[in-house]
């Protein structure tokens, strides 16, 4: 009987131990321990440490610093310690943690056979997976990874008996079967997991690439089976281990106590999270009660409504926009509900501008629609730039001209490098001035939102009328809107940096590491469609005739908000000009607030953000989502008067307009999952940057436009760099906390939503995030999710109670 299905099945199961890794140009923040989410958090980090070698908790020094500065409430900490069977006082327990960390794990500087396998394998992976950066690409890639390596290995001097590689079976699964002759079928999964976890960065990238099936994968296919066929063959040739050793679990190092249900670091982490969460919940509950007492806002229309991404960076600028005038701001996932594959004007590639948990459903392209002068000016400038880049690359790469090119261009290059190094702010001014003179795409293009039945692409182009209506209705239903201003602005976001391999990690996570402006333009175009508005009216969503929808993009590095307003009628010119002026003021104030965190003076906030955007030596152009810890789902009134310090995701939701809970279910199934991914990426990259991050940018080298190495080779680094998380080498700026979610809704409704979404309920049951409900129908009381769809009233000290859980229907007093 063929063993191919058995091999493929066990490869898929073994691959769960490694999280997916997206290419650097479309960086997606995801939980590196996603394959362990089916078990309790403390068990998952222990299992991952055995498999991947990464630490799963903050160090004793990090806990101590948080406790000493008051971030961990002493009373809560002592309650947590006692509740979990630890008799130590906080100081003694910290000493135990520190002592456990000081136990050195025996290591060896001697190169092993496995190291030699890794060295050869990563060399071939980098060559095969290159995405257009190599001047001399690897031959025979179209045959697939295994076939290409099998054909070239005899010519690789680093492979012992390279000719023997060609004698292996031609099919990868057959090669795997030959390598496993001495191993029973019951051990295959362990073998595959051992081999896949050896280079988790490359393995994670292969998983994502195979699942995405993009153009590179179609042209140059590689599968986990092909990867394992090469790896197992190399292991045989180098006489390296094929299966893991059976070693007993090591001692607990003083982090566990007999009778304790969780390890000591978990207790400290839970106390830290509870200290943060209690303040957030108290503030939301107080605001819930206060807004109920004062009643709903009057019927006056605001000057404008601005819908931002739920991104934590939006929280800061939203506060300052609201402070400049009569403006409402709202939070909505930054892809604006349209799962699309986007092609910019003149772009060579398309991108999936939607969360990775969704598949793109529509192809949207930018097409010129008039504005011939603007298009011509744009094309002339781009043609000039392209011709210049091509000429320079040819001169640099051509052996006959390289030296003469350096002789003739050296002075100019030197001046440009000096300017970028010494006066990056001036460079930003020059680039900004050039950008002002050249028309942007949105000035002469429109997105192809109308359905095109003749599209020849993999995805059909545009949307039908019914689809447009559904996307618009979903947006307004999730936002809970019942009134519209004259101007409604959908505001995507993007970053601006120079010489930064991790630039896409600062763009919109909901758009899979791409800019959110195109998505905002699509939803604005949909909502301006008269047929869509008429259909919305039939569904009870009445949009006034004078409401105009506008797209915008928030530059999170400089806090500038650019309006894409070419279609706005003259009747709204005054509204638009007032908004533009107020957005400039909001930018100044937001940049001043962020300046302190970036080490600059408040009065130079805007100037410093511009310098950081243009400085090619800047390792930290902005903090990104560092600091994220909370997610609030509810109306803006609950957080409008709070300074959340850019640490909370904010999604608008009005339980009163969602009687069936459909909108809440959509938020829980989508944005909540994505924010948990983001939070987990930041958490693990902070607690163990070597295993789950990517180390210092100073010693990184980009490889093939897909990722970075540390040094000159090795595993693909999968996570965020130190500079995105640490203010100094030993001082984390990001506080590594699991996500605390607060939902403003009846607790019964949330229970029903979780019952219908067992995946999210499982994350909660296993402690990957927490959930607190502020129930406006029960005197604005708060209830913590306590597992198995049960709740604990926050007013009772759940950690010190033997049976803390109550059913929702019993929590009525």
How would you portray this structure in words?
The chain is an alpha/beta fold and 813 residues long. The protein has four domains: 4-16 and 109-238, no CATH class; 296-369 and 444-681, no CATH class; 376-437, no CATH class; 746-810, no CATH class. Helices cover 44% and strands 11% of the residues. It is built from 28 helices and 19 strands. The strands form five sheets. Strands 11-10-16-17-18-19 form a six-stranded mixed sheet, sandwiched between helices. A hairpin with a 5-residue loop joins strand 8 and strand 9. Helix 17 (402-422) packs across helix 18. It is globular and about 80 Å long. The N and C termini lie far apart (65 Å). Mean pLDDT is 89; it is low at 247-253 and 796-813.
Helix content: 40-55%
Q: Largest beta sheet, briefly?
A: 6 strands, mixed
How many domains make up the 3D coordinates?
4
Q: Rg, please?
A: 28 Å
Shape: globular
What are the low-pLDDT stretches, counting only 5+ consecutive residues below 50? Answer: 247-253, 796-813
Keywords:
six-stranded mixed β-sheet, five-stranded mixed β-sheet, 44% helix, alpha/beta
Question: What does the secondary structure layout of this molecule look like, with pairings?
Answer:
Blueprint: H1 4-15, H2 41-52, H3 60-68, H4 74-83, H5 90-101, H6 113-128, H7 145-152, H8 162-165, H9 172-179, H10 188-196, H11 200-212, H12 215-219, H13 224-238, H14 264-294, E1 304-308, H15 312-324, E2 327-331, E3 340-343, E4 351-353, E5 362-368, H16 372-397, H17 402-422, H18 424-437, E6 445-447, H19 465-479, E7 487-494, H20 517-528, H21 530-538, E8 548-555, E9 561-564, H22 573-597, H23 605-614, E10 630-633, E11 648-651, H24 662-669, H25 671-687, H26 689-692, E12 700-703, E13 707-710, E14 726-728, E15 731-732, E16 739-744, H27 747-755, H28 758-765, E17 769-775, E18 781-787, E19 790-793
Parallel strand pairs: 1-2, 1-7, 3-5, 7-8, 10-11, 10-16, 16-17
Antiparallel strand pairs: 3-4, 5-6, 8-9, 12-13, 14-15, 17-18, 18-19
